[in-house]
UniProtKB/TrEMBL annotation:
Keyword Transport tagged: yes
UniProt protein name: TonB-dependent receptor
Organism: Flavobacterium rhamnosiphilum
Tree of life domain: Bacteria
Residue ranges of domain Outer membrane protein beta-barrel in the record: 446-616
Any GO BP annotation: siderophore transmembrane transport
Amino acid sequence: MNKKFIRFSAIALLFAMNTYAQDQEPKQLDEVVVSDSKFALPKEKSGKVIVKITAEDLKKKAGQSVASILSTVAGVEINGNQSRNGKDLGLYIRGGRNHQVLILIDGVPVTDASGISLSYDLRLLPVEQIESIEIMKGASSTLYGTGAATGVINITLKKAGKKAIAGNAYVNMGTQTVAKNDNYDIKDFTQGFALNGSAEKFNYFASLNSTETSGISDAKSANDAVVFEDDRFSRVNSIVKLGFTPTKKLTLDFLANYDRMRNEFDGGAFADDKTNHSISEQYRIGFSPKFKYNKGELVLNAGASKIDRNFDIYSSWTKTVDKSLYQSRNVNADLFNKYQIIPELFIVTGGQFQFFEMVNLTPFGDIQKEKAKFSILDPYATVVYNSDFGLNVNTGARLNIHSKYGNNFVFNVNPSYTFSNVPLKIISSFSTAYITPSLYQLYSPYGNVDLSPEKDATVEAGVEVELANKKITFNVVAFHREENEAIDYSFVTNKYYNIFGKNIVRGIETMLNYSFTEKLKFQGNYTFSDLDRSTKVLNPKHKVNASLDFQATTRLAISAAYQFVSDREDLFGWPSKVVVLKDYQLVNANVRYELIKNRLSIFVAADNILDKDFVEKNGFSTRGRNIKAGLNILF
């Protein structure tokens, strides 16, 4: 265990207790979370440390992508977020990889059934359409099924306002350059608008967004005398949400969404290419009725998505351009009910159905949808008990009925206790999870139909302290995760296989928030991860994030942020060699000003102010000092 970290935690805890002795104001129980029960629950009653990024927090990070914002959360690392706009992303939570993290949009799981890891591509989603994000770490298959092994990212999109008609239009422009490069031409453009409103029993929200970026090559040149061409990235996003409330008890919500992404990319590490590009199109529809009754609420979260990905990749062997098509279809229906047995006790029961299907047409072999499909049916139940003397218990179980793998059983136990005489909450949990192999891992030319699902178990324990009417919040959580039968790829057999034995990940996550005054606030977190060799790739052992927010006037706000990422390991070449990527530090700043109150606001953001030249992934470019400015008009 890191001794400096232990000293830091002890000092922070003593400081918090000392402040409590000086100032004991009543708590404000106003913040709610939904990720650990699927229903709104006061954060104080939750037995998890759930990080919530609010709409106000997103304003402070204007100009950043979804990936860069998530990468500032304790325990979360998104490799590629500091590279050129359009770089493929590696999502790691607690040493896990993309396929072990489940992403929800408005409560509906989103995946790409044609992808290698059955994960969702965060590049498809613009931050301008997001209202808030909740991040819950730890095995969560009891509530959310396959894939929720190391964490759940629950994204809530923007909703209709109370006026009959309202909206906003925005435009952002910025530079896009690598470190030690004096070319600060405008290369990054984002623009869009949104309309929303409510009238009696109806409400609506519609948004259109587009992004166009160039200026940086995907791959990095190994020779400074050789300049690689810029690789462009463009994206168009549209969404329409309609709501109807026929009675006070019943609400009906509908969603239609279209995303299109075009991305140029190179031939790999240190390898330029002027031909490679991809076009991805996503079509999503959703339906979510909610019915409230005397002691509970019945909810259906249903959605369907179709993703088409076309790749043109130059082949150095044949000297031709290989064309590949990846198509996927996913259907999800999650029906669940909350019933309040007594004021302190409620039960959530539900059933979830999921269907996955893919088509893959490449020069190396095809996968037809008649073969590459499976379905999952999961009944589950969760019991939540919130006592009036400080004890909170969240426990549940799920039976996964898989069309190929039969039955899998998972469960969780999550007790916590809040002391009444001191501002201290103790949290703990034990939870299991499973990860189904993807259709690609099963049925592609590199697949293995004999693969077994990965199994995961996490135990965690920690404390949380809130003082001085939440002016100070400190928490620390230690976790131990065991991963069995992890799926990996063999470059010897060119097949996917299950790793024999366990991968073990241990770590500590700690956060400290301190409001010096109403206008000046500090947030910081530190993550320590002790990883097995097979999970070390691109995962830092130490990571620090800190930010300072200053509301100088009612119209002027200033934010500064710092990030430290320790040494990481990467694999390079054939046969693969371990390459150590050196640690790096980033300093960012953001200034926002309301020119016309509640009508017109502007921002200026500076990233990597010190212009540090660092490596995020071996052989690929990273951004240097860049400036972005934008304005937002409300009407």
